[in-house]
Amino acid sequence: MIEIDAITKTYDEIAVVDDVSMVIEPRTITVVVGTSGSGKTTLLRMINRLVEPTSGEIRLDGDDNRSMPAHELRRRIGYAIQGHGLFPHRTVAQNIATVPRLLGWEKPRMDAKVAELLTLFQLEPEIFGPRYPHQLSGGQQQRVGVARALAAEPNVLLMDEPFGALDPIIRAKAQDDLLAIQKHFGTTIVLVTHDMNEAFHLANKIAVMDKGKVVQYGPPVELVRAPTTDFVKTLIGDAERPFRLLSVANAAAAVEPGEAEGEPIQEDRSQQDALAALLWSGRDALPVVSVGGKPIGRIKLSTLLKRAARLQ
Amino acid sequence: MRAWLPTALRGLLLLALLAFLVSPESFEPLLKPLVQQDAPAIYNHGSLLSLTLQHLRTVFIATAAATIIAIGLAILVTRPIGAEFLPLSRSLVNIGQTFPPVAVLALAVPAVGFGEKPTLIALFLYGLLPIFENTLTALTNLPRSVMEAARGAGMTGFQRLFQVELPLSLPVIVAGIRLSVVINLSTATIGSTVAAKTLGEVIIAGLQSNNLAFILQGGLIVGALAILIYDSLSGVEKLLTRRVGRR
Ligand SMILES: Nc1ncnc2c1ncn2[C@@H]1O[C@H](COP(=O)(O)OP(=O)(O)OP(=O)(O)O)[C@@H](O)[C@H]1O
Ligand SMILES: [Mg+2]
Fold first, then answer.
1. Phi, psi angles (nearest 5°) of residue A49
2. Taking CB atoms and an 8 Å limit, are B148 and A73 in contact across chains?
3. ipTM
4. Is the pTM value of this prediction over 0.90?
């Protein structure tokens, strides 16, 4: 659990993070959004003390994050940034092993961890481990950057626009990888992004920042249904609202018993995907199957239309 | 041009230089036409080989000392404790660069007298500047995201310096050392005007006795040394650049 308690950071008398308080539950993904210069990066960097707050306190699992030397704190918190920041003079394997090496892990344990992470990110350890960062594609470099952040099995992972430089297809893939990895390790993730689709896809909770303040902090559905300010409304986009609602709910949640014709959809896809499939194929209902492929019912177009409406 | 040609030419140059130093007499017929009757065509006040070695020794000692001090200073002014001195040291470097090496030598003599000492001091001082400047440039222009990642990973200041900053700066630092060495190789000849044992002796002797062959052989040896050392340090630099992954 991360407790951010009345945190303020001022530069030259200007509060770039202004009295922010929020509690981040363990094993969840919290996404921070907001316009450029609203203080997202500064807030994130105060968690691992790359920036020292002017006032306020941040507690990790109850302990003030200033109760240990900053470099020791940072070894316990994963940190992944845009442009990955891989060490160009070190191989991929050495890059991933950065924090374990600082912590003095035994070599076999380190090697095993590197191989595990590379495999998890679908990079063949024998092929990619000995390579240098410049021998990788942008997407591969980015995955290695995240793998490096996870190498010492941190409870908390901070990510600052980690997928900002990726093309849409690789980005979608990276997001799904991240979700899988978050499930696998149970990491608490705080992620900054400019991409609202990314925010809705990943977040358990979204924090919206505007001029140094967190103007709304809650589950994605709440942001769509009850935006607290015009800024939040604009950020979500009027025309996008119904689709955002459907995008954060699983197809499984809209299933009813019955049968339907045509191509089925898997229960773990979003209701937005289901709506798209219905509209594109011109059907009124769609069969739904479990992840294993067993039929479990159908979704009706009329159900989805009702679910996309403001009041339910 | 074929890829092997430069290497072959360097090899030939090295062979020619070694041959000349080991047995200068065998080159006498080549240099004879440059001198008047009866005048010696090959330097005869001492062994060319030992002068060359002394020349190299002087340059080596001065550059090594300059390297250690310049890198140390550059590290110091790029740490938080030395940050105050960064602007000052930058301007000192810029002023120092406009100072001709001969002037440094002229200023050193009154302070320490004649011999090898003033030469060492002049070479040391003049060698500092390129190395200091290059190290400073390298250390202050490291990729931001890499430095950010090093801090974020929990490296201490020392670990960042030795594991990230210096390895990444090495190619640029070596380029500075290369510049220093080459400047010092030629500057060292002037050292003989203040009685240091260097190849300058040969050139000065040639000037005094109006012996073109002496001037030429002194100049050519220094030139060949400079080319060979410059090239091999360039090679080291290329290797390091490839190692730090920036090609
Ligand atoms: N070291 C600093 N000194 C002075 N001002 C700073 C410093 N770091 C950040 N700022 C200012 O603080 C404000 C917030 O910066 P921050 O990097 O947190 O924004 P951000 O929300 O991450 O923006 P972006 O989306 O563009 O990354 C900006 O106005 C920035 O200019
Ligand atoms: Mg930012």
1. 65, 30
2. no
3. 0.84
4. no
